[in-house]
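Lab notebook, design round three. We kept the backbone fixed and only want residue identities now. Task for the bench partner: fill in a sequence for the structure below.
Input structure tokens:
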């Protein structure tokens, strides 16, 4: 009985990847409308996002990658780097619906009170 149950659970876990992509993305939990909108045609898929036909590199969370296709237009809300060559995506449009990365895919930085924050704070300041 235990062996049969284990095999069944492994089979179910393997089939979990066959669910629609929409289950991996999420509705936006924050307002991205003030963030600039960028559009372009996808010319290449890269390790961390896509490359647009105009040469801009678009960095996006892994849960948003299934929504982009080669040679298709993409419309994203994101932040532009100072040199204008890289866009960090916060959300994208799937048809007319705004899609944000899943909560598990959003990386969080150091917060006040954490050990990583203390290291950042002390590296930039000098002793009085």
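Proposed sequence:
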């Amino acid at each position: 009985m235990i062996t049969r149950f284990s095999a069944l659970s492994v089979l179910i876990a393997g089939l979990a990847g066959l669910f629609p992509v929409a289950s991996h993305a999420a509705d936006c939990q924050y307002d991205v409308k003030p963030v600039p909108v960028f559009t372009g045609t996808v010319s290449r898929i890269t390790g961390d996002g896509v490359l647009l036909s105009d040469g801009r590199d678009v960095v996006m969370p892994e849960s948003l990658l299934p929504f982009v296709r080669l040679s298709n237009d993409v419309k994203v809300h994101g932040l532009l780097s100072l040199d204008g060559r890289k866009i960090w995506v916060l959300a994208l449009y799937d048809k007319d619906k705004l899609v944000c990365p899943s909560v598990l895919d959003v990386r969080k930085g150091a917060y006040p009170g954490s050990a990583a924050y203390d290291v950042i704070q002390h590296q930039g300041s000098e002793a009085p």
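Keep this in mind before ordering anything: The domain at 24-104 is CATH 2.40.50 (OB fold (Dihydrolipoamide Acetyltransferase, E2P)).
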